[in-house]
Write a structure and sequence with these properties.
The chain is an alpha/beta fold. It has one domain: Rossmann fold (3-Layer(aba) Sandwich), CATH 3.40.50. Helices cover 30% and strands 21% of the residues.
């Protein structure tokens, strides 16, 4: 189950998004753009770009914050003042949205995240460092087909 942060100040839209994502994802809400350090536990973020600045904060600053994130992001409405952040891992979706469009965009974001995690695993060595600094080697059991078990 993926953990999704939805940045949406309007309660009605929060409920609509929660109902769309409920069965497959753990959804949490925020009313404003958080610092990137607060996103480490989330698999993806959904941002209502049209609502930026509704809390009195500078929408241009909030857009720059979203551009600096590394977490996959769905940007709803194309952004405040017609601006949309540009970066890898960001999918822009024009409002109004449907359940199918939102689900598809989220699936794309999570697929990209899975590909990145797989790439990071395959790019690394098979030796890993433990907390104590000792190197651990992952062993794979090889079983030949038709091998007999000795008693």
């Amino acid at each position: 189950m993926s953990k999704i942060l939805v940045i949406e100040p309007y309660r009605v839209l929060q409920q609509a998004i929660a109902l769309t994502l409920f069965a497959d994802h753990e959804v949490q809400f925020a009313r404003s753009i958080p610092d990137s350090s607060e996103l480490k536990d989330y698999d993806a973020v959904i941002v209502d770009g049209g609502a930026l600045g509704s809390d009195g904060k500078d929408p241009d600053r909030e857009i720059r914050m979203v551009q600096s994130w590394r977490v996959p992001t769905i940007w709803l409405d194309g952004g405040a003042n017609g601006q949309t952040p540009q970066r890898a891992g960001l999918v822009a979706v024009k409002m109004p949205i449907t359940k199918a469009v939102l689900s598809s965009a989220l699936a794309d974001c999570l697929a990209d995240l899975s590909k990145a995690k797989l790439h990071n695993r395959s790019a690394g060595s098979t030796a890993k460092e433990d907390n104590g600094g000792a190197k651990l080697i992952e062993l794979v059991e090889v079983v030949e087909e038709g091998a007999e078990v000795e008693s």
